[in-house]
Design goal:
The structure is a single chain. The chain is built from 2 helices and 5 strands, in the order ββαβαββ. The two termini are 21 Å apart. The protein is an alpha+beta fold. The protein has one domain. The protein is 19% helix and 40% strand. A hairpin with a 2-residue loop joins strand 4 and strand 5 (75-82).
Length: 83
C-alpha cells in the first residue's frame, strides 16, 4: 500500500503507514469498482478540481479516469480507475 500526502508518496514496504477511516469512507472504499485503485479527499476551498485531477494522476504510470466524485461540505472525494 502506498499513501500520497501532498507531493510525497510513502510506501508501506519502506515505512509504516496507516489510514484512519470513518464509517462513510470505509463504505465508499468497500463499494469501489475492483479496477479503482486511487481514492482522495481534499478541502475544495483550497484546491480546484483541475489541480486535484493533476495531483491524483501523478505519478502518471497509467491512464486514469474519474469514476466517482462526491461533494460533501467543504470536501470532495474522487475515485479513479484505470482506462
Amino acid at each position: 500500500m502506498k499513501v500520497k500526502i501532498g507531493d510525497k508518496v510513502y510506501d508501506g514496504k519502506e515505512v509504516p503507514i496507516m489510514l484512519i477511516l470513518n464509517k462513510g469512507e470505509r463504505e465508499q472504499i468497500a463499494e469501489m469498482d475492483p479496477a479503482c485503485t486511487r481514492y482522495s479527499m481534499y478541502p475544495e476551498d483550497k484546491h480546484t478540481v483541475e489541480q486535484i485531477k493533476k495531483w491524483m494522476l501523478d505519478p502518471p504510470k497509467e491512464k486514469w479516469e474519474i469514476l466517482y466524485e462526491e461533494n460533501k461540505g467543504n470536501f470532495r472525494r474522487k475515485i479513479l480507475k484505470r482506462k
